[in-house]
Structure formats: C-alpha cells, structure tokens
TrEMBL record:
Keyword Membrane: yes
InterPro entries: Cyt_c_bgen_Ccs1/CcsB/ResB (IPR023494), ResB-like_domain (IPR007816)
Protein known as: Cytochrome c biogenesis protein ResB
Sequence ranges assigned to domain ResB-like in this UniProt record: 99-580
Length: 607
C-alpha cells in the first residue's frame, strides 16, 4: 500500500531563504518571478498580528524637520510652522501609543507607588507624617516638593496615570479596527511556491482535483478553520483568539485603571475602636479616623449602626504554638437604618458584615481595664474602661489614662491628671524578668501605672494621640523616696496619690475592645472583573497560535493530481508541522497516493 505523504527533501539553504530567493540565472523573467514569489510570501504572512507597523518616514528637505522646504514670505513661514507642529504632534502620538512606551509608563506607575507604601501619607495617617517631619527635618522639605507625602494625588503620579490611560486607548483602538477587518476578510490566497513555507507536504493521487479541494475544504472547516476556496487552492486560517486575547488583556488594563480611579474618587474608609457594650453609628463624628475619596460626599454615608455585644478570642493553650490565636469573634447587633429592625451577626476575621454597599471588618482587639480615679475629697473624677494598645502577640499593652475634667485637689483647685499605663493579661510574677505578658488570655492580669498632674496639653488645638501621654507640661507625683510614683496593681487594688491628692483603683472588671474598619470600595468588583479578564486574555495570547494552511490540488502533466499542503504560523512552533501532518494524513485517507505505474519493458526483453 502506498505510503502517506512526507515532506520533500530539504532544499539547499542558498536556494530557500525566508523572504529571499537566490538564483544564479541572469534571466530577467526568472528575476521577476522571484520578486513575485517574495511578494506572495509576504502577503501570505501579513496580518498574522494586529501590531501596528510604523510607516516609513517621508524624505525631509531639512534634517530633523517635519516642515519640509520653507518657502519665503510670511505665508511660507506659517505653512512651514504648521507642518512642523503637526509633524511633531504625529510623532509624539506614535511614540505615546506604541507598546514600548505603554510598558515604560506601566513600570513608572508601579515604581511610583513604592514611595506611597514606604513613606507616611497625609491621607492615611497625618500623625505619622508629623512624626516623620520632626524626625527628618532635612528630608521633609524635599519630600514636600516632590509630593511624596501624598503620592497618589500628586501631579507627577496623576500625569503617569493619565498618560498610561491615553497610551492604552491609542494602542487598542487601531488594533481593534484592524482585527475586525481581519475577521470580516477572507484568508489570503495561496502563494505560488508552497514548498518555500516552513511546513510542507505533497503527494500524487488519482482523485479529481475538484474532489480533493472539496474534501480539504470540509476537513478544514471540521477542524474549526476559517476556510475559503480561491482558484486552484483552499486557504484557511485559525487562532484568532490569540489576537482577541491580546486585545482583551489591554482592554482589561484600562478597566483596572478605571476601577482604580473610581475607587480613589468615590471610596471612603474609617476606623473605630469599640469597647464591649458600646456602639457605633455610621456618621462622620463617630469615626476615630476617616479617609474619603476626593469626590465622596459625607451625606451619602449609609445610615446603619451596630453595637458590640461581646468579643471572644481563643488561643492555643500548650505546645509549640502556645498562644497562637484560634478564633476571633465579635457578636454585634446592627440596624440597616434608624427605622429597621435590629439583627444579630457575628463578625470574624476576613468575614465582614456587609451593609448597603459598605463592609465592616474586624481588624484587631485588645483589653480595656476598668479604672476609677477619685480626687482629694473622695469624689469620683473618672470611672470606665481604658483601651490599651497591644505591643506584642501576647497582648502586652500600653496606653494612657487622662482625667481632663472633674478632678480637684485637696484644696479644691481644678487640675488634670495623667497616668502612663502598662498592662499584661498574664504576668510572669515578681522577680521573673521584665513585665511582659506570657499568654494572650486573662490568666494573671496586672496593671502598672505612673502618675502625673498638671496640663495635658489638650487645649492647644493641636491633634494629640489619645494613647500617649505628653508630660512636657506636667509634674510627677513623687513617692516617699522622691522618685516617680509607680505601682503594679492586681484587680481590686488601689494606688494612693501622695499628699491626699486622691487615689486610682484597678477594678476587677476587665473589658475587651475590638477595632473595626468600615470601608466602601465602589470599583472593587470592576477591578476584579478586569483582573480575571486580563489573566484570561494573557493566557490566550500566550498559548494560542495564529496559523494559516493552504491546500492546492492541480492536474499534472501525466494526468495525476498533485496535492500540496503548507502551513505558516506567526512564530516558529513545533505544533504547526504536527498539525499539518495530521491534516495531511486525514486528507490522504480521502485522496490516497497513486500507485507507481508499471515500468515499460525495453525492446528485445523477454516477455
């Protein structure tokens, strides 16, 4: 049985070269044929990509000038100036909309976001910015001029963002129209010399040429090629999803940029620390800190509220992971509006409460020892839980107790008290090292206080950290040795202030607090859609190959049909010859190789 078609023997590399035909014949007709073959090969491989080709620049009479020859007179000068400006504008637009510049802008946008992550930002934490200014008096003025304290709203970052946006649109629009034109067009006609293409097979068959072409057309369409008959050949192409994926990827980048812009303009987020039993209403004055987008109106805050009924946390009690958190749960009662019925919900880490487009996240928690401060007359000047901030994983906590009003000394004079507080939920015990907690739970709580009196500095009008005590205008309470009055207390114990100035009691109740972040990100869903589409588009552009296949069937001089098959891809790939071999095998089954004719016996041979 005749073998299946195999590619012909390799030709001399000097005779077969991509885009160039080398011939030793000086015949002008052959030279014209070679030029025609090269042109056909170029057309066969054209538009395998929607990447725009830069048109060759026209000759210029003046080096470096787009205006050409400048004619004398005012009219000539104006015409030359117009041509010069228009030429430079076209040049700038071609550079801006090139893929190279788009990648550079994308890199600059990523690089420019680094200072926003490393340097404190005014829109996020103004106190940290002020602390940075005080600690770096030389760098701060430079950072101010460069806009590094407000990177994402700075002029240079906005310029990169807008240029990248315009560049992507300028890249996508012409490529989209070109791709639509390719979808509406027909595959290019078969080149005259199919044997010059990288994947090629040929054989001879007794089948009629028309039958072979019809069989090839049906076979290619069955393989989901877009096929068309043109003359004595069938042209087909496949892999348009590669260019579609490329366009989807770039459109997705625009979607992500738009989502980022919407999110930055219309977002809001704020933090609130709530002691167990207290509540929160979603109004501006209730937030500990609030960061709105530049176009967000505080009147649009959803009117929900919630109360922290209970906070509970569990920890690994023993083993190598002792103290590791297991569960953090905040039980809340919330209402979606003032007239709505209350509902119960448990907020956990990464499981926020969603209300009217906003999300309430549980981000941290700690302890709030209940303290009672009495003045020199025994009157209660302050009583309540004092939230302290943890400084390690075992919830060793620090903070300040500030008594602003209601305190009078033994002489009846008004003054203010301040206490530096240090709290450990599980104390190691006297003589067992420094005062740091050994476990996060309330196994052996101890509160250490140091006392001051004077002015807390809250009347200066400057923002002040409620968890830090400014002692610059305060006086230390002295103990019997003339040192700063300090004392460690167990629940229920009291520290007496000297000279009848009052007392501080560490009550037996210890509350827990939870910190919540309320945020609204209107562009998050759009950004997620863009990210998923970008991944899908990138995968399509990387793993799908754009290729073309031609099948020619013509009657030979001996009456047999000569079948030629060739393939061309956008890039060299081992899959193209394999795919062509499968197609050739299937077509060969329908139009098998003709048997070699019997040799004619020579005259005088024995019959």
């Amino acid at each position: 049985m005749p073998d299946r078609p195999v590619p012909p023997p390799a030709e001399d590399p000097e005779e077969k070269r991509e885009g160039t035909l080398v011939t030793n014949s000086p015949d002008p007709a052959k030279a014209d044929t070679a030029v025609a073959d090269d042109r056909e090969l170029s057309e066969a491989g054209s538009q395998l990509s929607t990447t725009p080709l830069e048109a060759p620049e026209e000759g210029q009479s003046v080096p470096g000038s787009f205006g050409g020859v400048r004619k004398p007179g005012l009219g000539g000068a104006l015409a030359w100036t117009w041509r010069e400006c228009a030429g430079w504008a076209r040049w700038f637009w071609r550079q801006l909309t090139s893929m190279r510049v788009a990648l550079i802008l994308l890199f600059l946008l990523s690089f420019g976001a680094i200072p926003g992550s490393l340097i404190p930002q005014t829109g996020i934490d103004e106190l940290k910015v002020e602390e940075f200014r005080e600690a770096h008096e030389t760098l701060s003025p430079i950072y101010d001029k460069l806009g590094l304290f407000n990177v994402y709203s700075s002029v240079w970052f906005s310029a990169i963002y807008i240029l990248l946006f315009v560049s992507l649109i300028g890249c996508i629009v012409p490529r989209t129209w070109q791709f639509v034109g390719q979808l509406r067009g027909r595959p290019p006609r078969a080149p005259r010399r199919l044997d010059r293409l990288p994947a090629y097979a040929t054989w001879r068959t007794e089948a009629d040429p028309e039958e072979v072409r019809q069989a090839a057309l049906g076979l290619l369409k069955k393989r989901r090629f877009r096929a068309d008959r043109a003359g004595d050949a069938v042209s087909a192409e496949k892999g348009f999803l590669r260019e579609a994926g490329n366009l989807i990827f770039h459109v997705s980048l625009i979607i992500i940029l738009v989502a980022f812009g919407i999110g930055q303009l219309y977002k809001y987020e704020g933090g609130k620390l709530i002691v167990q039993g207290d509540g929160f209403s979603n109004t501006l004055t209730q937030f500990d800190d609030f960061k709105p987008g530049s176009l967000f109106d505080t009147e649009d805050l959803p009117p929900f509220s919630f109360t922290l009924d209970k906070f509970s946390g569990t920890y690994e009690p023993s083993g190598p992971q002792r103290g590791t958190p297991r569960t953090f749960e905040a039980d809340v009662t919330y209402t979606e509006s003032p007239d709505a019925a209350p509902k119960k919900r448990t907020i956990e880490v990464n499981r926020p409460l969603e209300i009217d487009g906003s999300k309430v996240y549980l981000i941290s928690h700690g302890y709030a020892p209940v303290v009672t401060v009495r003045d020199g007359r025994g009157e209660v000047a302050f009583k309540g839980p004092v939230p302290l901030l943890p400084i390690d994983s075992n919830f060793t906590s620090t903070g300040a107790i500030k008594v602003l009003d209601g305190y009078r000394d033994k002489d009846g004079e008004k003054t203010q008290l301040g206490f530096n507080a240090f709290f450990v939920p599980t104390f190691a015990g006297e003589g067992k090292g420094e005062m740091f907690s050994q476990f996060p739970a309330l196994d052996f709580p101890v509160l250490a206080l140091s006392a001051y009196h004077g002015s807390l500095g809250v009347d200066s009008g400057l923002p002040q950290n409620v968890y830090q005590l400014d002692t610059s205008k305060m006086t230390e309470f002295k103990d019997e040795n003339g040192e700063l009055l300090k004392q460690r207390m167990l629940p229920g114990e009291t520290m007496e202030l000297p000279d009848g100035m009052g007392s501080v009691t560490f009550e037996k109740e210890i509350e827990e607090w939870a910190s919540f972040q309320v945020s609204h990100q209107p562009g998050s869903g759009l950004a997620l859609t863009g990210a998923v589409a970008a991944i899908a588009g990138l995968a399509g552009s990387l793993f799908i190959q754009r290729r073309r296949v031609w099948v020619r069937a013509v009657r030979g001089d001996d009456g047999m049909t000569v079948v030629e098959m060739a393939g061309l891809g956008r890039s060299e790939s081992a899959k193209l010859p394999e795919e062509l071999a499968e197609l050739a095998g299937d077509l060969h089954d329908r139009a098998p190789t003709a048997a070699e004719p019997d040799a004619v016996p020579s005259e005088g041979a024995e019959k």
